[in-house]
């Protein structure tokens, strides 16, 4: 094992080709993973930011905010259910916003809310015509103190502060009090004129000690099927495209990992072939097959680990130069997962050479 | 107890349909601190005899006893352990590990067997290299050493684990006469100083007088 490390240290160039290939594959893997995470984050922030366990849609809405309607009567029914501690109305309007001094419209997810989300102060108070904007909108030129003309009605809304990780379907979170949202919605989509008190959905805080799923079932029972209540996690994966994105990207990622395994396998097969003579000498002077093989595995792990570490740094640097339209996010858990999988594939790749290493005949050292 | 006892050892190679008899009913006994020179023309079976004695090859027939252990029926695993603990080889082509320094080439033998601590192994390696006149070359890689120096490192490696039997294949083939004689003298003094048995292969009869006894081999047949 130590022998393997020494060889790596003294002759790093021999491993340069494998290292470079793995570095490129690492960048590719992290880029794909980062894109998946970025898309996920940009689609689901609004729901994940809710400080509530459940989301209630009307049952004809197919779990989509914009199609859903909850009127005050229905809300009263929900609030009467055991285990419901608090509810908050929620509604969005996906519209463009004209930011002073910018040529392009900013994509806004104008969100009318009652319960503050996780990055807001608990006692948040917004006046009509005021908004807290998601920090991601800075890329579109949004600044605190600006007045943005929102939607087709060009409703003037002043940005008074920031929130974080609240984007919805790749549109920047733009949090306003409910009447401002209703106004924007009515101006931009005249067919969606909602009366006061009516929201698209409710978020529900479950009482201490009550099970979220049980309360959800109780709500749908109490409304006689007029609502479809999901846990926050279920609501996130019911968002349009989330499942499809996940399966598409995951399959590309797994194919790439497989290719990484092939690269390591091929490379170490060639390297082993080249070193059969040396391995024979090792065995002739008393090394066991296990000792020789463990040095091969050590080398593959170190080459993969180092390449991955450099790849991660390269990817991190890339995030600074990638345009804002490419929503790449570097998430620590993804980093760890990718690194571990890459190392595992490298070990599997090295195992391809196992048979050859075991079969090296020490007698061939004689010649 | 003799260091090496070969009894009626036969080794045949098959290549295609032909059967080559590399060693034919070889019987040889080497005493505990004896140096035997094995002399014979090219292709006569010298390397084959050495390989069988050191557990690198298994004989087709016959019995091989080294230091009282009958290794004829050993498994590959047992042979690995045997080579690690009981024999030292100097190969015909020197075969040092190219990315290890002279000292490390000796220490690595200990690493495989884990017989002594690192410090101790290092001290022993340095002592051997010192005796072999390589005190200034310990940190050089094989590529930075002359042919004779490499040969001496290989001798040091063979002696590293205090083997009962040292098997040396053509130690002087790559050297001129003078250096060849120096290397032979070194081997003799190292081996005698440790009362280890040795079989030294050479096809150069002039080198043979360094040994206690000369055995000749022709077409796989031994003659005293
Ligand atoms: N692996 C093998 N397969 C087939 N024949 C072999 C093999 N190894 C050796 N031989 C043959 O066995 C005979 C003895 O070979 P060996 O290597 O023992 O000779 P040697 O005396 O060491 O020769 P040299 O002085 O050239 O090193 C030769 O005829 C050789 O061609
Ligand atoms: Mg030979």
Task: Walk me through this protein's architecture.
The complex is a heterodimer of chains A (367) and B (224). By secondary structure, chain A is of the alpha+beta class. Chain A has 11 helices and 9 strands. Chain A has 2 domains: 2-43 and 242-365, no CATH class; 64-237, no CATH class. In chain A, strands 2-3-7-4-6-5 form a 6-stranded mixed barrel. In chain A, strand 2 (84-98) and strand 3 form a beta hairpin. The longest helix of chain A is centred in the N-terminal third of the chain and has 33 residues, at 16-48. Chain A starts with a helix and ends in an 8-residue tail after the last helix. Chain B is an alpha/beta fold and 224 residues long. In chain B, strand 9 and strand 10 form a beta hairpin. In chain B, helix 3 packs across helix 4, helix 3 runs parallel beside helix 5 and helix 5 packs parallel to helix 6. The two termini of chain B are 20 Å apart. The model of chain B has no long low-confidence stretch (mean pLDDT 88). The chains are: A alpha+beta (367), B alpha/beta (224). Chain A binds chain B through residues 2-3, 6-7, 10-11, 277-278, 281-288, 291, 362-363, 365-367, and chain B through 47, 50-51, 56-57, 77, 79-81, 83-85, 89, 91-93, 95, 97-100, 104, 108-109, 111-113, 157, 161, 169. The complex binds adenosine-5'-triphosphate and magnesium ion. Residues 13, 15, 20, 22, 40, 42-48, 92, 203 of chain B line the site of adenosine-5'-triphosphate. Magnesium ion is lined by residues 46-47, 92, 169 of chain B.
Keywords:
heterodimer; A: 367 residues; alpha+beta; 2 domains; 17% strand; B: 224 residues; alpha/beta; Rossmann fold; 10 strands; 33% helix; globular; binds magnesium ion
